Amino acid sequence: MPAILGTGEHRYRVVDNFAKLPDGWQLTDVASVAVDSKDRLYVFNRGAHPMVVLDREGNFLRSFGEGLFSRAHGLHIDADDNLYCTDDGDHTVRKCTTDGKVLLTIGIPAKPAPFMSGEPFHRCTHTALSPKGEIYVSDGYGNARVHKFTPDGKLIKSWGEPGTDPGQFNIVHNIATDADGWVYVADRENHRVQVFDGEGKYETQWNNLHRPCALCCCGGANSPTFVIGELGPGLAINRNVPNLGPRLSIVDAQGKRIARLGGEEGPGVASGKFLAPHGLALDSRGDIYVGEVGVTNWTTSFPDEEMPAAVRATRCLQKLERVRE
Q1: At CA 104, angle to CA 69 and CA 179, rounded to 5?
Q2: Phi, psi angle pair for 60, to nearest 5°
Q3: Which of 196, 214, 267, 273 shows the smallest number of beta carbons within 10 Å?
Q4: How confident is the model over 209-265, as pLDDT tens digits?
Q5: Which UniProt keywords apply (predicted)?
Q6: Cα angle value 217/218/219 (rounded, 5°)
Q7: Residues 193, 199, 202, 204: is their CA dihedral positive or negative?
Q8: pTM of the model
C-alpha cells in the first residue's frame, strides 16, 4: 500500500515510481520543479537533460536545456508560463519559454561577483516575482543578499548581509512572494524564514524550522499557505537524531504550522520518506511535487552505505497526491 503522510485535511498519498523516463535517462539531483497552467511538470535537474517535462501522470513529454545550463538550482513559473531558471553553476537567471527559448538573461554566465561582495551574482539560488512582475533573486551561496530587478532585468536594489540578526542571512536559499507583495526568504542555515515587505524592510521571521530549503506559496490570494521543505541534519554529530527531518511543513501566512509531512525517523528511500527536499510545486488539484538533491546529500546522510541506483535515476522526484475523502 502507498504511504500516507500528514493528518486531517492535509493527507497525501505517495505516488511511488512516478517519473517514467526514456530508457537510460537519469534525473540525478532534482533541484527544483514547477507546474504550468496545463498541469505539466517542469523538472529542473542536474542530469544530462536539465529540463525534463512530464504530464501529471509522470509520462515523459520532452526535454530541453542541454548545453545551456551549468548546474540547476531554482525554478519559478509565472502566470504566462514563463520559466525563471536559476543556475548557481554559472551565476545566472534565465527567463525561458516552456520550449526552452531564452527571453532574458540576468547575470554574466560563468562570471561570478566577488565572494560576499553583495553584487549580483555569486551562486544565486532562486527567483520570485512581485505582483508588478519585478524579479527577486536570492543570492545565495557566495553572497548573503536579495536582489530586486525590473521585469526587463535592471537592478533596482539589494538587501542583506552575512549574519544571524534580522535582515541578515546564512545561506539565502529560496524566495517566494504572495499576492500582497510580501517577500519570504528561506534563510537556511539560520533555521528560519524571514519576511520582508517589497522594498526589503524586515517584518518578522518564522522559527521552529530545520534548515528550510524549499519554499512554495499556495492556497489563494486571500489566505495563502506555504509548503516548506526542510533538510535533515548536516553534521555527523546529530545525523541520527529523530524529528529533525528531512520533511515538509505546511504553515499559514503567520508561519503557524498547519501540518507536517514525514521526517520523524530521518531520511530514507522507502515510500513516505524524504532524502533532501530542495524544490516544491503544487498543481491545480493540490498535489505536491518534491524535487530532492538526494545524490549530493547521500554521503552526508548515509556515509557508510552505497547509494541505490534508483536515487540517481528517478527517486529524487516525488509526487504526493492529496487524499480527498
Answers
A1: 105
A2: -70, 130
A3: 273
A4: 999 999 999 977 778 999 999 999 999 999 999 999 999 999 999 999 999 999 999
A5: DNA-binding, Glycoprotein, Repeat, Signal
A6: 140
A7: negative
A8: 0.97
